[in-house]
UniProtKB/TrEMBL annotation:
It comes from Ornithodoros erraticus. It is found in: Nucleus. This is Uncharacterized protein. GO terms for cellular component: nucleus. PROSITE patterns: TPR.
Amino acid sequence: MSVRWTVFKERWLSVVLRSAWAEARFATFNGETEAAVKILEDTLDRIEQESEMVRLLITNCKMNNIITKEVIQEQLESLQRCQSLEEVHRLYELGRYQAVADLLIQTFRKPAAKGRRVQPKANIPERHAQLVLLQESLWNLKDFRGCLYWGEASLNEALHEYLSSTTALMKQDWSNTIVIILSDVHRCIKQEASLLGSLDTVKLARLAHNIIKLINIQMEVSDSCTDMPIPTVLPWNILYYVLKHEEDKIHSLAACKKVEGTAGGDCASLSGTMPSSLMLLFTAHEYLGRRSWCTSSEGVLLFLCVDVMTGEIKKMSSHPFYEDVIMGLEQCFYCLYGHPTRRGKVKHLQEHNATPVSLTWERSPVVFNFFKPAVLPEFDSLKTSTVSSELEVLLKRIVAQVPTEYDPSKLADAVVAYIEGTSDTLPDPPESVDPIVAILYYLLGDYYFKNKEFVKAIRFYTLDVAVNPSRKDSWAGLALSRSSQLEQRINSCEPKNEGTILRRGMSSLRCFKQALDIDPANASLWIEYGSATYMLLSHISRQLKRSKQLGLSEETIASHETKKIEYLSLAKKCYECANQCEADGIGNNEMWLNHYLLGKITHKMKEPPAVYLNHLYLSLQYLHRMNAKYPRKILYHSPPYLSIESLELYYKIHALCFNS
């Protein structure tokens, strides 16, 4: 062009600028960003050399038809930003998150020119991808304040683009982008709830307005629609946090006014009403439940409901909406985990047909603490005090989630070895026991014991004593379960292995001893201990009487004789200790039984008749004090109160007198 100056003369600058502008536009359209930038930089230098302001109008163009220093500068900056944006993915993959954030934040402050959108060959991330990269970069930088700030701006832009989209594919892309942005905003707020205070009033209001728009979009679809238009329930969660933030501000202001002595009656008058934020959670569950969406997004809404409601019931047991919160929690657990499995037992539960989520160990504490018995059942408490069959199913699901470090199964073999007498020491319990594990296995053991499933009861009681070796009720349950199994085995008509019976009997007695070492003043345990001992004693006596028929060796007979003497002494001690507990006023009014069995035991020990007859006479007296009945005729299926016991004592006294 310089050699043609003599030809164009005063029109030379106009021709040069037009030519450079056309060349730059052509390079831009072909995606040759570097070439376009170089041309525009040279053109800008040429204009700056001119003393007068340059302004050209290209009459045969409808767009980009004005050439000025400002227009060229704007186009150059736009191309430079586009050139930088091409590096965004590479920078992100290299972990240079700050550089990525700096580049993408500029796109909010200085939006690119429309010409950038018609660069088919440019390798520039699409806008929704840019918004996602910005959020991820700020999160990786742990800039939670910035993540929330730009997340709100990104959500505003993404929602606008979603509403403006004209094709299903574009709507789908922006819908996915909104879900990701909401997820980032949500986790920022969860990370630090006070971050909402960093947004100014305008931005916070815009955030709430956009969230409500999203909820409207979801709720306005037809009833026949099964898929959410924007597949997330996070708008409800975020709206809850915004409402809670505003409520906290109101309470804080009210507290300040109260300190200053000004009127605070408005706040006080609301103390008995349900907070708006909590009411929102009930509304969210109700509306989403109608469409079976309440457990969408992996149950994140219901998890928030559970966390908030459990926090509320800990501090407001006297409030008028306490029962509402309890029922709300039960509905949440029913939708999340399908508990209880039989909905008819809890009439207020609604069937939302939502897909349940898996119960994890992290979420187990809140479920367990809500459903566990207020008072732990004892080994001799009524069956109604134990857990229900519904809760048993839930407890087994929790057992399946116990982490390896808390699982007591690795100690079970050592506990069994101690119970069976092959080891003299109990294994040391874990240094730290999870609060759930501390009672989880005991509740299951108690349930199976009181439902006469002794094999399962023994298993769970064993696991419990592995972590709670000082729990009397577990040792008592183990002893009674083992003695019940032994009794069933002795009374059965099947062939018996005598060695197995004696080993099981000794294991049961060892558990009784362990329980009574913990609680030596428990009359019920002493009686059960004595009964188990007497049962073994009776079995050994029968074996000795049939020694010839059974072909017992001399060694076995001698061992049985020794065991018989040992068990007689032990049984006598048990009932004497039970009598002592009764005398101290801590028994269960079973003196008649204690003396009756002491009479039988002392007779077997060949003590003087005055001793065992005195025990039987005392037993008869105690029965009389308990208003025993003495009918002329006893109906077997419906005997009068203590009539059979009285008859047996009457017979026993006379029979022993005749034999003395």
